[in-house]
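[recover] target loaded
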């Protein structure tokens, strides 16, 4: 409900300053989500995924085409997928798909990011690498993190 994926049955909630009932389009532009299971399009490349999701977030309305391209390439490099930027999602390993899903959640400067099991299925090296990426991207945003065993933690804003 907090991500705008399903409507609330009752009550009121505000996320990133937006009411989940009345400000849904603005909420979706400011919230990033990495679901437990990858929701990727098999026939899109890594770069095409980033372009698609940042367009949904309105990144292209806020920056020049060159600035957008550079920001997306930097994000892809940050998750160690630069060499795979032209590879189709269907050809990525499970760990690479998770990295792409994490990058998508942060694209468009999301103010609140929900990460559900962002490192599931990753080997120990990839898991540690991904945690470092999450730490890097935590500045000026709230990250709600759901990890194994039902434990949740939140990385607060770093003002």
């Amino acid at each position: 409900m907090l991500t705008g994926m399903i409507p609330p049955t009752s009550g009121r909630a505000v996320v990133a300053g937006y009411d989940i009932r009345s400000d849904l389009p603005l909420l979706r532009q400011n919230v990033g989500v990495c679901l437990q299971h990858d929701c990727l399009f098999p026939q899109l490349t890594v770069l095409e995924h980033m372009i698609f999701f940042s367009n949904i977030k309105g990144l292209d309305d806020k920056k020049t085409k060159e600035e957008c391209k550079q920001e997306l390439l930097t994000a892809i490099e940050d998750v160690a997928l630069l060499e795979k930027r032209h590879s189709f999602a269907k050809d990525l390993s499970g760990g690479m798909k998770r990295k792409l899903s994490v990058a998508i959640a942060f694209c468009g400067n999301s103010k609140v990011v929900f990460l559900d099991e962002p490192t599931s299925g990753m080997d120990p090296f990839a898991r540690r690498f991904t945690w470092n990426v999450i730490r890097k991207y935590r500045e000026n945003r709230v990250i709600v993190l759901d990890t194994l065993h039902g434990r949740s933690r939140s990385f607060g804003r770093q003002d």
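[recover] notes: Strands lie at 14-15, 18-19, 31-34, 112-116, 142-146, 152-155.
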